[in-house]
Structures are given as structure tokens and as C-alpha cells.
Amino acid sequence: MDIHLSLGPLVALIAGILILIVPRLLNFIVAIYLIIIGLIGVFGLSGTHF
Predict the structure, then answer these.
(1) Of 11, 19, 24, 35, which one has the fewest beta carbons inside 10 Å?
(2) pTM for the whole structure
(3) Where do the domains of the chain lie?
(4) Which residues cross the membrane (predicted)?
């Protein structure tokens, strides 16, 4: 049995749990996510799949 977890769903799951525990974290989590996705788009890390 091989369990394969990709990074995107795992990050989403952790973020969702943190938002349920501390709702004020939503602003920071969304901002960090958008910055990371933007940097990946700008610098063209085509080998990275999220």
C-alpha cells in the first residue's frame, strides 16, 4: 500500500484546521498563499506542481 500526498491538499487541510481553531489567522494564511503562488508565477518554477 503506497500512500502519496501532494503538497497542495495537505497545506489546504492544515490551513483549514488552523482557521477553525483561530479564525483571525485567515488573513495571514490567505496572504501568504497568494504571495507564494504569485512568486511561483513570476519566477516560473514550472517544475513545481501544487
Answers:
(1) 24
(2) 0.48
(3) 7-45
(4) 5-22, 28-47
Using alpha carbons, select from 26, 22, 3, 41 the residue that is nearest to residue 50: 41
- Quick check: 3 and 46 in contact, CB under 8 A? no
Phi, psi (rounded to 5 degrees) for 34: -65, -40
Q: What is the DSSP string of 1-50?
A: ------HHHHHHHHHHHHHHH-GGGHHHHHHHHHHHHHHHHHHT-TT---
pLDDT tens track, the chain, 50 positions: 555 657 777 777 887 888 788 878 788 878 888 888 888 888 876 555 55
